[in-house]
Amino acid sequence: MSSNYSPDKIFKLDAVKKTRIIASAIFFIAIIAAFFIYPLAWDKVISKVNVISPVTLPNFVKVPFKLGLDLAGGTRLVYLADVSNIAGQDSESAMSGLRDVIERRVNFFGVSEPVIEVEHSGSDWRLIVELAGIKDIAQAIALIGETPFLEFKEQRDDAETQMILNEQQAGNEAYLTQDAYFKATNLSGKYIKSAKVEFNQTTYQPEVSVQFDAEGAKIFEELTARNVGKMIGIYLDGFQRSSPVVREPISGGSAVISGKFTIDETRKLVEALNAGALPVPIKLISQDSVGASLGQDSLNKSITAGLIGFLAVVIFMITFYRFPGVVAVVALVIYAVLVLALFKLVPVTLTLAGVAGFILSIGMAVDANILIFERMKEEFRTGKGLGSAIDDGFTRAWPSIRDSNISTLITTAVLYYFTTSVVKGFALTLSIGVVVSMFSAIFVTRSFLKFLPINSLEKRPWLVGVKHLKQYD
Description:
Elements: H1 7-11, H2 15-37, H3 39-52, E1 66-67, H4 69-72, E2 74-81, H5 88-108, E3 115-121, E4 124-132, H6 137-145, E5 150-155, H7 158-169, H8 173-176, E6 182-188, E7 192-199, E8 206-212, H9 214-225, E9 232-236, E10 239-242, E11 254-257, H10 263-275, E12 282-290, H11 292-345, E13 349-350, H12 352-381, H13 386-418, H14 421-449, H15 454-459
Parallel strand pairs: 1-13
Antiparallel strand pairs: 2-4, 2-12, 3-4, 5-6, 5-9, 7-8, 8-11, 9-10
């Protein structure tokens, strides 16, 4: 073994080699990210290579961008929920259950990435449903409206029934909308575990057999126990479907919905109940449709605006910072590629607000480079070598970059957790951009500046944006 052998020579690299390795790794990652964003470029090259290659190379994995309603087109529905029969403290829980049921219902029909939110204003509870890619409003309404509101009511006492009928005959508005024969209970479709089609053994008519979950089974058993000898009204979307008489308490959580159903109606009802029955009734109060052409037009305008902004930044950076400006532009291209790849990988549902957040993050990435270059120029003017000026520029600019980006991240966190979906998209894309911009400033820009022809630039300071160096006696 040679006496000159040292483990340090294997495990420790000098600054130049480290810089080359980091720069090469950055370029490699950027190229992979670029193919991930636009896999057709890879496929075109590979198709030509496979003609002469003995080994068939695969095409690049294809993951589409997820576009929101305003870019992909689709339908937005606003429903008003009736929580009048629910205690105030339970309204939020009921609306959360409603949102979950609607989401399951929409997913059951294969609608991708639905945006379903609950809004509360005063005594009004609203459900906002955004279905990207669904252009037909009637189809969208059908997806939501076919989910039935199933409820079980118990029979009123004769005296109570007669009192309500008398008040209705007298024209008392407080009683006109009340059901004189049945009153609401806590048992509704939200407790349904499963439903299936069966045939009555006596009439041979189709009916729906319902199985409740554990909590629903307990409520159903208590309901039947206190109503032995009375009828239980089974209501579907506000209409009474059947009213069987309770002979004895029913345990096990099974019930049957019968009525004048056709086989097709029974089958559709079972599908709807299995997708989830609504815990509260809802009413459609607003509907909007964004056409595919309008969404594509918005997307094209957003891309155009981004390219114009990027070109303006390129001109500014090269004009004011010359060679370092070119480095910043290269770093900015890599930054944009990495961010767009992350949008696909996370994935982020891109809306117009999200695109705006991404474009704004480009400006913030440039801002970090400007801080670094200005500090670098100040150090260079004082007579330091350009290599030392670059290192000192990064060291002294970093606290400002760190603090400004952290404050931005705090703001985006607040926006994400306390606002609606549109603002959340903006906050998410901006926060991802800010994090990547810090990586771009510290690793990408710094590594590439090390490849500048330091000696030549020191003799021509104007190439780094410095007109005159300070002279010292």
